[in-house]
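seq:
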Amino acid sequence: MLDVVLYRLGRATRPHFYRVEIAMNLFCEVSVLREWGVQGGAPREVITCFGNLREASHAADTYRKRALNRGYQRG
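struct:
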């Protein structure tokens, strides 16, 4: 459905990434997938399920804003 990928280019040799995705799952719930890590490395991920799209969109937007506040930028 919706996918946002942000990058943080800092003093590190490899850029960091943060990805937020909203999608429907097999149980008719809306899932928000958050994935982060160092580009080229093994990512970490968390999936949170919500009962409706409004709650999922609000949560995904909150995660996106937090990442932007931590220095991530659109690629």
